[in-house]
Design a protein that fits this description.
Elements: E1 5-7, H1 14-26, E2 34-36, E3 41-48, E4 51-59, E5 61-62, E6 69-70, E7 72-74, H2 85-90, E8 92-97, E9 99-103, E10 111-115, E11 122-131, E12 134-143, E13 154-156, E14 158-159, H3 164-169, H4 171-180, E15 186-189
Parallel strand pairs: 4-12, 7-12
Antiparallel strand pairs: 1-2, 1-9, 3-4, 3-8, 5-6, 8-11, 9-10, 10-15, 11-12, 11-14, 12-13
């Protein structure tokens, strides 16, 4: 499960810096940078009718109970779940990130930041919908690979920089990216205040 990720205000990736600059021009103060929590509004890249656009979007689809959020969609079942199937066909999103967080469940609940090797952007694959006048997104997850499995059994689906446009604009390419996404990740323990 991916329920928190981070995107700094000055990412090294030139493409992401450019999008953040456009976000600041078009939506000043309407999105968060830093650690993104469920319910936060973040920068999203949306596939819309074969084109790409940037927009602020809220992390989480409305859930079934009051104040409940659906944060993730399983890649293995995304096409068969009524909540996600149409969005996967028509409304895919990319959430640029410096890394994502998971917690160990060994009794200590240690927080870890997972990143790609080196200072590279992760392009988290997601879906979006329009709910009550705002875009909202969920992050696709898949079974964890060897670099994550000892901390958590799921990890986000991650596109490469070269796959972003295809994921957002080509349904068949998106299915392939979701099926094969499996990058090896680095991790570091995060010393932080109470969660």
């Amino acid at each position: 499960m991916c329920c928190r990720y981070s995107l700094g205000s000055d990412p090294l990736d030139e493409r992401v810096r450019k999008i953040l600059s456009l976000m600041e021009r078009d939506y000043p103060g309407q999105y968060k940078v830093g650690e993104i929590f469920p319910g936060d509004t973040a920068m999203a890249i949306l596939g819309e009718n074969g084109r790409l656009r940037h927009a602020p979007a809220v992390f989480g689809f409305p859930g079934f109970g009051k104040n409940q959020l659906i944060l993730n969609a399983r890649a293995e079942t995304v096409e068969s779940r009524q909540t996600f199937a149409r969005a996967f066909r028509e409304r895919r999103a990319i959430l640029p990130a410096d890394g994502f967080y998971e917690w160990s469940h060994d009794g200590k609940k240690t927080k870890y930041l997972f990143t790609l090797d080196g200072p590279r952007t992760l392009y988290l694959c997601g879906l979006y919908q329009w709910f009550n006048g705002e875009y909202r997104f969920v992050i696709l997850t898949r079974p964890a690979n060897d670099s994550v499995i000892d901390i958590h059994d799921r990890m986000p689906v991650i596109a490469s920089a070269d796959e972003v446009r295809e994921y957002l604009t080509d349904y068949n390419a998106a299915k392939e990216i979701v099926a094969v996404s499996n990058p090896f990740l680095q991790r570091e323990k995060v010393e932080s205040a109470k969660e």
